[in-house]
Structures are given as C-alpha cells and as structure tokens.
Amino acid sequence: MVSGVLHKGVFEYQIGAFNGKGLVANNTVGTSEGVARVRFFPWKNSTDNWTKGLAFGGAYALGRNSTTGQSVRGQTESRSFTFFAPDTVNGPVTRANGELTWLIGPAAFRAEYDQVNQARNHLGTGGRDLAGVVAKGYMAQFTYLLTGENKTDVGPVAPKRNLFSGESGAGRGPGN
Known about the structure:
By secondary structure, the chain is mainly β.
C-alpha cells in the first residue's frame, strides 16, 4: 500500500493491492484486489472558518469472485432482519464510494454513498450471464461537541470540561 498527503493536507491518497476482501469476505479466487482512495480539503489552509473544514473524496475497488463466491447480504446491523439473502456470484466485483465532510468549530456533518456491483457471469442456463447483484447504501450524520472542543477529522476527542458537573462533582450545567 502507498499513501500520502500533499500540499499541507489539501490532498490525501491511498493506493493498494490486497489479497482478500477485508471485512467483507475471504478471498475465493487467489487474485488480488486493487483499491484507490482520494480526498480533497480544498480550503484546508485558508483562514475562512466556514470553508476550511470542507472535504470530499471517493474510493474505487476492483476485485473478482469465483463461482463459490457469495454476494453481499442485505441485513440490519443487529442481524435481526434480512432485506435480501446472498446469491452465488462469479466475475468482477467493483466497489465505489463518495464522501463529504464539513467540520466547523464543535460541529461536524458527514455523508457517504456506497455501491457494490457483483457480476454473475456464466451462471445461467447454458452458461449465459445473469443480472449482477447491486447493493447501495448511504448515511449522513451530524455531531456537535457540548464540552467546548473543535471537532477534528480523525481520532478521539479529549473533553476540556465535564459535561454535567465540575471536578468536585457539583453540577453547573452543560459544559460548565
């Protein structure tokens, strides 16, 4: 894997080849998967607090499944409900995502869209190709730190003050 940051953090990149599918599944064909990711903070070094924390980027991955491979499963995080069961897949697998982040003081807004396309080559009657499996997902979240810190792009936040009480335990309100 190769990664880097250019122009004082304005541009980030990661490029790699991996033998496996990470957390998604084990490698079933013995071929590597290529992944590329870029991220732009166009105004990171500006003095304008409104645009300084705006970032966007995306990633693209290309791999392969064999006839013993299974597609993604549409399931809730608790695994209590399945939207669709996995199906047998064979052929190229592409994953793509786009993301947007906006950090402004103690607030952060993040949104992401992901899509996986899994081919079903030669699995039909007479070896014909079947329609591929396409899975799409998105999320958006908003964070606001009540204890006075500025929201950072990565890493944990160490609160400057207790939220509900002072050091002695006496309550003085949100963020003291």
